[in-house]
Amino acid sequence: MLMWAGTNYLEMKRKSNVSGKIILALALTMLCIMLFKGSPSFGRPSPFSRLESGVTHVLVTGGAGYIGSHAALRLLKDSYRVTIVDNLSRGNMDAVKVLQGQFSEPGRLQFIFADLGDAKAVNKIFSENAFDAVMHFAAVAYVGESTLEALRYYHNITSNTLTILEAMAAHGVKTLIYSSTCATYGEPDKMPITEETPQVPINPYGKAKKMAEDIILDFSRNSKMAVMILRYFNVIGSDPEGRLGEAPRPELREHGRISGACFDAARRIIPGLKVKGTDYKTRDGTCVRDYIDVTDLVDAHVKALANAKPGKVGIYNVGTGKGSSVKEFVEACKKVTGVDIKVEYLDRRPGDYAEVYSDPSKIRLELNWTAKYTLEESLRTAWKWQKAHWNGYRI
What residue stretches are annotated with the NAD(P)-binding domain (predicted)? Predict the structure, then answer.
């Protein structure tokens, strides 16, 4: 009987302690709620959810990627409010963290993880945020890969652009800066390429981009949207101050830019450089391209944004106006890195074209934009970043 009574007493005491802890937890929770309600920011909308006089809020799709992150950096430096949307399939969250560290003040930068192929998620982003403009970079962007995964490219580039346009129309966002490509021109008969050069793309990447352009142009004819389409050429370089650079995923090296392959060869990550195609009708048999520095490129985007006008469409080539062959590029890379890179010459890559370089006269005259960096300067800046980031952003 005493044993039973003692056990009952202990059980009652245990229950009492539990009840006391629950009451204490509830009291602390209520106190936190009261303090939160009493804070100055409680009940106020997020700065990103409202339009603000004197502040331009730009949605940067693909802002965790190579070009998009550099664009976001420039916009933030110029006091724009920036929202980055990226699904990180090709982008790098560490690049976003660099930006967050540089611009940590409230209302400057936010990151949203989302896939533009999800129309419901895209509409939610637009309904919860007040955007003044969209810079649309998000896209898979490798010519060789596009010949192997054509449907993926049409969905990712063309369909997703349609989703963005529908969201912009539904929520009254009136300015679009569209990231397009010289690949929409295909292989023209005459050089240099002007904005009037016929668009006859020869690979799924270029075709998907041209389809997206056509959708934008058709929509703009019956809207008051301000549209700027920038068709740019081969992008190289990195942030001159060393904050951002190009760090593609290892599995994409086969499809990546020649600058990345050159640096990988210089670092002995790969045994040498593979040059695909030596029988083109060019001065040395290798492809000729117009290499534009990423800092120059984002400067063109910012000038396009500043000059965008309601109901008007601007289409511009963004390049240096000078073509360099692959062999010339490799020699410049050898000079900058100080490494005698081994080169292996292979057959042509499917979907490639012999010679492409721009006539940038229109953007110079209308937007007062001119490329400033030379090929060697761009490679030198990019190589400096590579040496400081042997493992990409994870030093």
Answer: 59-380
We report the CATH number of the domain holding residue 351 as: 3.40.50.720
d(CA 171, CA 126): 7
Residues 6+ apart with CB under 8 A from 65: 86, 90, 91, 92, 95, 137, 138
Question: Is residue 21 in a domain?
Answer: no
The single residue listed with the structure tokens 């940038």 is: 360
The answer as to whether 31 is a domain residue is no
Would you please indicate which residues are annotated as catalytic (active-site) residues?
205
Residue 108 corresponds to which amino acid? R
Sign of the four-CA dihedral 90, 91, 93, 94: positive
Distance CA 34, CA 28 (A): 10
pTM for this one?
0.87
Tell me how far apart the alpha carbons of residues 213 and 190 are, in angstroms, rounded to a whole number.
22
Q: What tokens were used for 221?
A: 């004819």
Residue 26 forms part of a structural domain? no
Residue range(s) defining the domain that contains residue 246: 53-388
Side-chain half-sphere of 32: how many Cα atoms within 13 Å?
6
CA dihedral 360, 293, 225, 45 (to 10 degrees): -160
- Domains identified in the chain, total number: 1
Q: pLDDT tens digits for the chain (395 residues)?
A: 334 444 454 455 555 565 666 666 676 666 555 554 444 444 568 999 999 999 999 999 999 999 999 999 999 999 999 999 999 999 999 999 999 999 999 999 999 999 999 999 999 999 999 999 999 999 999 988 999 999 999 999 999 999 999 999 999 999 999 999 999 999 899 999 999 999 999 999 999 999 999 999 999 999 999 999 999 999 999 999 999 999 887 777 666 788 988 999 999 988 999 898 999 999 999 999 999 999 999 999 999 999 999 999 999 999 999 999 999 999 999 999 999 999 999 998 777 778 899 999 999 999 999 999 999 999 999 999 999 998 888 75
